[in-house]
Amino acid sequence: METGIIGLPLSGKTTIFNSLTGLAAATTSYSGGKKQVNLSEVAVPDERIEKLTDLFHPKKKVHASVLVKDIPVQFDTQKGILPESLGEIRNADAVTIVIRAFEDRAVPHPLDTVDPPRDLQKILDSLIFSDYEIVEKRMDRIAREGKKADREYLILKKIYDRLSEGEFLGTDFLTPDELNVLSGFRFLTVKPVIIIANTGENKADISGLKTKAESIGLSLFTISGQLEMDIAQLASGDQQEFLTDLGLSEPAVNRFIRHLYKTLNLISFFTAGEDEVRAWSVSRGSSIRKAAGKIHSDMEKGFIRAEVIQWEELLKAGGFSQAKKEGAIRLEGKTYTVQDGDVVVIRFNV
Ligand SMILES: Nc1nc2c(ncn2[C@@H]2O[C@H](COP(=O)(O)OP(=O)(O)O)[C@@H](O)[C@H]2O)c(=O)[nH]1
Ligand SMILES: [Mg+2]
Fold it and tell me: What's the mean pLDDT in 194-208?
């Protein structure tokens, strides 16, 4: 699971990255700072792992994780975000867009004024344009080869028509089968999008941003970047105290990951034993066989069956062998839909 953070220069991308990772990557108060990508694996907070750890005392516990990438973006007031800057997010599972929604005279804005809905439109236009260029080039080529009747061309045409109207496609625009045909292109406008309004202490009006986001089916996530970054850099004991003082129940990363899981429709299942207790994320509705493939491709290929129990029942029974005696462990075949909180043992052939 991977998400790339993009946004206009000085919108607070690196600040948000730090608030989600607890790192201290350099932020800049002027455009044109360092052009390196910041990367970090962020553990998906999950108390169930701690509970399972108490039961199994494993050598290792591993949370599911999300790779967060903070991407330096080159921006031109006329052309928008340059397509080169967007290459970094083509492999991401979700695009995270940071919008500046804080007032601060000390921080310049590349377009001079703080205007969240305008900035969102600029970024969406850039994503649309970069996909448009790819589609156009590919269609030209297919046309030159005289293959306009091919299925690929027809799907591209459908995309082309929408993009040329400046429309963002969204996750439902292509069927899974169509997506499959075009997967090599890694289009940006069909990826799930999370919009972060970086509100800061002195919040700009975000009602227009909210309306705009909702009009294209995207939900808004608000965060006070600077403040959350400062909190994320405290030792964990102090963190809780600060959050409580501020009337916040949990750090930004927990809220963000939950939002990401919801937007991407993800669930977590577990493997557990004396060696390792581990969480895995998978799309809701996935078959156990596909889920097994997350653990190891051999498990998917050679899948025989799975032993499955909900984590709470496993705790109640006090372990696998007790659960087995009580008949609490189910045997499931390859079509079983894995559920959030399932603890699984995969039986497979190599
Ligand atoms: N006042 C205020 N300043 C912020 C906030 N978030 C970021 N900044 C400042 O905005 C500038 C740009 O932030 P940075 O994270 O480097 O933006 P990036 O260019 O999008 O990565 C820095 O001077 C930050 O300190 C915030 O919530 N409030
Ligand atoms: Mg930055």
Answer: 96
Contacts of 14 (CB under 8 A, 6+ apart): 25, 26, 27, 28, 38, 70
Task: Enumerate the domain spans of the chain.
Answer: 2-262, 285-348
pTM of the model: 0.94
Query: Measured in angstroms, how far is the CA atom of residue 239 from the centroid of ligand 2?
Result: 24
Q: Which residue has its alpha carbon closest to ligand 1 atom 9? A: 12
Q: Is the pLDDT of residue 253 over 70?
A: yes
Whether CATH 3.40.50.300 fits 2-262: yes
Gap from CA of 108 to ligand 1 centroid (Å):
10
Pocket (CB within 6 angstroms of ligand 1) = 7, 9-15, 27-29, 102, 104, 107, 198, 200-201, 224-226
The encoded tokens of residue 136 equal 């156009």
Superfamily (CATH) of domain 285-348: Beta-grasp domain (3.10.20.30)
What separation in Å is there between the alpha carbon of 160 and the centre of ligand 2?
Answer: 32
